[in-house]
Structures are given as structure tokens and as C-alpha cells.
Amino acid sequence: ELILIDDASNLTAHYELREVEPLLSALRVSVRFFRWEDNRGLIYSRRWGVQHATGRTVLVLDSHVEVRPGFIEPLLALVDADYRTVAAPVFDFWDTFDNRDSYLSYDGLALGFDRYLNWIFVYHPKDTRNIPTPAILGGAFLASKLFLEEIDYFGRGMVGWGYENIELGLKTWMCGGVVKYVPCSRVLHYAAQRSPLSHGDRAKAVHPYYNAGIVMKSYFSEEQYREFDMNMKVNSSLINSTETVAANKEMLARNKCTRDYKWVRKNLMSHIESYDKETTVAHKMMTEGQCVTVQLKENRVYLESCAIPKIALNMVRLTRWGELRIFDRRCLDWGYDTVQFVLCHGGGGNQITRYNKNTGQISNISNTHCLGRVEGERGFSKGPCVQGRHSTDVTFSVVSFQFETVFNYTMLVGGLQLFDTPPSVKNEFH
Hints:
Shape: globular
Number of helices: 9
Largest sheet: 8 strands, antiparallel
Structural class: alpha+beta
Strand content: 25-35%
Oligomer: single chain
């Protein structure tokens, strides 16, 4: 069967699913179509669809994922061999349905996370075998309906989207299951043309780390949760999640899930501490003789003297897979109307940034929008990668940037340790 859910989409540029519905009747499978009258968010819709599926195995596919021929057989083979397996294809990232020139593959990468639930990719060079992974990208995976029922699916009580994939990976491993990426199963992932972070009416009114707080409070120790809350200040927003946390803990007890995060880190992420060593370089991002600075409280990006005391405020990192990171937790996200550094989700798409060393331009994955300045404004904006009018009443100019290496550093599980001044031995910064 095929279950199709329209989460109250308002994209007028696309056909509404009501118009597509008659075409679905021509398929040789049972098609069940649902459209919400109000926007309920990705997690709710995905969880609802899986709960109401009648098949022995369930394949989850987001709307911007296109499958390749032969992708499903390797996934089914794994789940048939062990019903407690969650199997995921490797993602190849393209810009849009119409533009396939921009390409990025996540070959050899498993998805890990630290004790603050920041995504960290674990690299398995030239490994073509099925890769055990702490978590997966949530847009495509296959699992046994029975096993998902046993562990209470994923995303209970969460809003919008985000962290439900980490939760699924965590409790699968904690309850004796296995999560694997399967290199011979591949799908295409297209960059969303706008960010879904604000989608879902409930998601607009909650703390940005609300979902992460539920995961931390449900599956981590009380001490680890207190440390998380000390940094993220999420506890007061979780007042309505008591039943959700209790249900998650009851599930762990019911299934006799004896593993914990320490087990996951030791057995699946022991080498994360030195990941990506060859590219873990901190930079000053400069233009016009000043440094780009991120004001996290207001999420503003502007220029300031490079001599400010706290070096972390103007330190960025360009990762191997194309993210422009600051504080190693926030990535430049092109899915917003304004220039913003938001929580890194590791899913590519809107958070892929390109840097042209010849021109100094910083652009999105398709090179259609660049960082620049609007005349008369202090901060940065995004606009067309050509000189000209940003709109009918303001002038937008593309800016050329340079990067100056500050020092090398090593990522530690639990986040990047930042200091006000670089160490004397630059190549051994910890």
C-alpha cells in the first residue's frame, strides 16, 4: 500500500495532491490519501502514517526524496534477516528537480552526535559494506512495523521536525536493535526551496531545542540532562512533556533496554574525537578589512574589528561536506529570507555553502544566491549572485570574502572547547 499525506501544503507553485489523487488510482497498489486541514508538522505526519500502515515492513520517504532503481531490495534483505534492524539508503544530494549539476554524496559517512545532540559525521573511508550508524537522516528508511511498534515508533510528543531521527537511532541501539546505512541502496535528496524549520503551528511557539530536550530527558542520565539544560535553557519549556518523557522511559523498561548513550558512544563513536582531522581548521572570515561576526542572541551577521577579545565570535569552519559553521553547532542556512546561522542538521540542502576562491563569493549549493550587503544596512543579506537590484527599492551588492587560518583544533565529544586566545602550539589545539 501507499500512504500519502499532505500536511496542509500551501505551495501554490505545485499541484495540490487533490489534483493528483485521480492519477493514483491507476497504480497497482492500494493508495490511501490524507490531507490535514491545518499544518501539523513533519514528525506528526510521518509518525501517523507509520502507525496506520498495514504492511509487515514500512518505508518512509519524504516528499523531496527520489528513489533509484533497485534501492529497496538491499534494505528489505537486512530487515528480513533481523526484524530489529533499521536500514537506510545513502543520500545523494542535488539542488533541485530541474538542476542536477550540483551534486554531493554522503558515501562512507555514518551520522553520529555528541552529548548535546549536535550532528557529527563519522567517516568510513572506502568502506562499501553496510555501515553501522548511531542515527540516520530521517528522510528515507525502512523498518519492521512490529519493531517500530515495540519501541513506540519515533517522535512521541515532538513538534515540527528535528531530533526524531536521533531518537529513533538511540532507542533502536538501546533496545538491542541495529541501525545501518546501506551503500548499495541509494536515493536522491533535493534541496528544499524554503526551510521547514518554522512549519507546524505548534513548532512556532516552542523552544528551538524542545525536541532535543525530550530526547535528552528520556534517554540520557539526569546528570547529562542537567548539563544539556545548563547550555540550552530548555527545561522550563518542557513542562507539558511530562507524559511524553514518562512514556519513553516506560518503553525502555518494558523492552528491557539495558544499553545507554555511553554504550552507543563507546561502540559506535569511539573515533569521533579526531574526526575530519585534515580539515578541522578555524578561520577568520574577512571582508573590507574586518571580520564577519555572528550575534547569536539576535542571530545577526555583521562586520566587526578582527581584534575583538573573544576569538570565537568571528571563528568559522568550512567542512568537507560544504557547511559553513560557527561554534561548530550552527550552520549558515540559505532557507530563510535573512542570513541566519541555525542549528546544523547535517542534511545538506539549504545548509550547503560554496566558496569560490577566485572570486571570493559565498553562495548556496546552486550558485544562485550569494552573501552580500544592502546599501545602508550594517548586516549581511542574501541576493542574486549578480550585481544589480535586490528589490525594487534597495540595492544589493555581492561581497568578496577571504579566509585566514587562525589555528587547527580537534573536535571533542560534547562540543568544541573554545578559548579566548589560540594556544602556543597551533597544530595541537584541544
